[in-house]
Each structure stands twice: as structure tokens, then as C-alpha cells.
Amino acid sequence: MILFLFLLTGWLHSFPLEQKLQTRPLPVGKVNRGYKDTSRINWIGTAARPLKVSVWYPSDKIGKEKILDIPNQFTETIKIFEDGTPLKSRKYPLIILSHGSMANADQMQWLAISLASKGYIVGAVNHNGHSEEEKQSGPLPLTEICMWESPKDISAVLDHMLADSIFGPMINFNQIGVAGFSLGGATAIWMAGPRFSNERLKNHSPSPPEFLVPHIEKHMSLFKTDTIVQRSYTRSENSFLDDRVKSVFALGPAIGQAFSPEELNRIKIPVAIVVGEKDLIAPAEMNAEYFAEHIKNSKLTIISGEGGHYIKELSTSIQAAELKKIGEIAFNFFEKTLK
């Protein structure tokens, strides 16, 4: 039923209205948070659903200094402060990041650090648990079959971050956005309220690559035998609208055809969609362009290159430059829509 998931690989893998752009980058801190959603159970039925979150934020430089040398994400080496003391001089906008399939939060750090250095708090969600929790023997986590759990993750993380003893008082409640890549891009759009359709997804799903077939079939068999998976499926076509989210940024969003034009037409908040003209994983016509066509308050930007879904050999410098440009687009969009 959901054999399209190979499209969702997450390999990475207007200006502000009331204030001037941040010209000097702020020091960036990073901490990890281990939240839980007690309204849901993990896939093996032993505990609440885990929500591991990497948080990047403006810091006062007090913390463990770490140099990041990641040429395919950054055009230069980056200094961050692990467990750095947050800079509490004012309240900040909050952006929640959603990663692509078979990926993790750190593969979105190119965007997280870019935003944090410009005065944002950024929480990047690891949607997937460890292999045992995901009943996983191959590359595909169960959460990415039951992908409707991802927007619920976003809302649960929002709950926790707003209640967090450190970050809660630093967040401007009226300046919350969601950004995502690939499946995470679709997740970000999901937060604006459109209902997903299993039937539409089934009718528009191409055949998966051969190496994923046994893993997909293994997970799909759980819909017949596993009560936790069956319970998850009952909420698959719910609305996951979260009124706290004021705008959405989606890079290379996938599964566009799973949402009807009528559902997308109901979205009321601003949505920015960016896609690479050579994106072969989530081709623009069926995804980014389709979303943009049916979301009234949306803007589509098509950039050169693959725009995040890098499956062809490419110099790391070009890839990092593309991601830097995308980060600037995201920042300008959130500055305009949140402030």
C-alpha cells in the first residue's frame, strides 16, 4: 500500500518587516534533549514514544567548543559550543526541523546552524527510534512506513520545547515555524492541516527499488498482525493541523500526490517550497510544483542542481554552496512570515 517510500531518502543528504538582518553571526550552542510522547507507545510496546531532539540556539560561548569540518554541508569550518549556555538577552523565534527518510537530525544541521546563528532557536527531531524500537532489520524504519506519526512528533516536540525549563522562556510563542526536507518537507506541510489519503498514495506510487522491497514487505505485514501498527493506521488520515505553527518551509517535499487539491487548498499559512531542477528523488512535477499549484499562500523557488537529494557525484564545495543558498532562502522567508 505504501511502496513509494524509496522516494523519501534523506541523504544530505522579502526581508524582515520590522528589523534589520543579523549582519554578524551569533555563536551557536547545541544540546540534545530526550523527550517522550506519553500519548503514544513505542513500536515494541515497552514505553512511551521516544522523541530525541537536537537543539541549536544563540549561545554566549560558554560550553565545550567543537569545530565542525563537514565539506558537503558547510562552505567553511564551523565552530559550535556543545552544551553551551544560551544567550538569554531576548526571546527568539522557534523552528522545528523534520529530516528525510533514512536520515537523522544532524543531517539537517546545515540549516539549523544557519538559522541559529541569525537569532533562531531550532529543534531538529529524530523521528526514528533505535533499530529494536523500529522493528528494523534493514535501512527502512517502521516510522517511515507509518509516516503520519511524524507530524504528531512535531506537535509533541513543540509541547516539550515550550515547557522546557531552559528554552521555554526564550521562545516567542507567536513566532513558530516548521521546516523539513523530502519526507520532512511533506511533514512540514502536513502541519498546516491537509489530510493525507492512503488511497491517493497507493494510486500514485511507483515501484520501489529492488533492495527495499523485502524491508517494505516486512513492515507492511505488520498492518495485519501488530496491534500497535494497526492503532497507528487508524489515525493516518487525521488532520494534524497545529495552530501554533505560523509558516512552513519545505525543501524537495515528497509524497505530494498523497494530498488532494481540495485538502491543500485549505492551507491558510504561508508556505515556501524549494526544489532543485534536477531532483530525481522527489521530482518537482509530482511534488513541489503540485504542492505549490494547490496551496494558495505558497511560493515556489526552483534552484539549479539537485537541491538536497544528492544522488549524483558532485563536488562538496558546490553542494555546500547550494545548501548555504537554501539556508538563506529559508531565513529570509521566516524573517518575513514570523516577524
SSE inventory with pairings:
Elements: E1 28-41, E2 48-58, E3 64-68, E4 78-82, E5 92-98, H1 109-116, E6 121-126, H2 149-163, E7 171-181, H3 183-190, H4 198-203, H5 213-225, H6 227-233, E8 247-251, H7 261-264, E9 271-276, H8 288-294, E10 298-303, H9 316-338
Parallel strand pairs: 1-4, 5-6, 5-7, 7-8, 8-9, 9-10
Antiparallel strand pairs: 1-2, 2-6, 3-4
Oligomer: single chain
CATH topology: Rossmann fold
Series of H and E elements: EEEEEHEHEHHHHEHEHEH
Q: Any idea what the radius of gyration is?
A: 19 Å
- The tally of domains stands at 1
Mean pLDDT: 91
**What is the CATH domain class?**
Alpha Beta
Q: How large is the share of residues in beta strands? A: 15-25%
Task: Specify the overall morphology.
Answer: globular
Number of helices: 9
> Percent of residues in helical segments?
25-40%
Largest sheet: 10 strands, mixed
Poorly predicted runs:
1-21
CATH architecture label name: 3-Layer(aba) Sandwich
The end-to-end span amounts to 42 Å
* Number of strand elements: 10
- Structural class estimated from helices and strands: alpha/beta
Q: Please identify which CATH superfamily we are dealing with.
A: Alpha/Beta hydrolase fold, catalytic domain
Strand order in the sheet with the most strands? 3-4-1-2-6-5-7-8-9-10
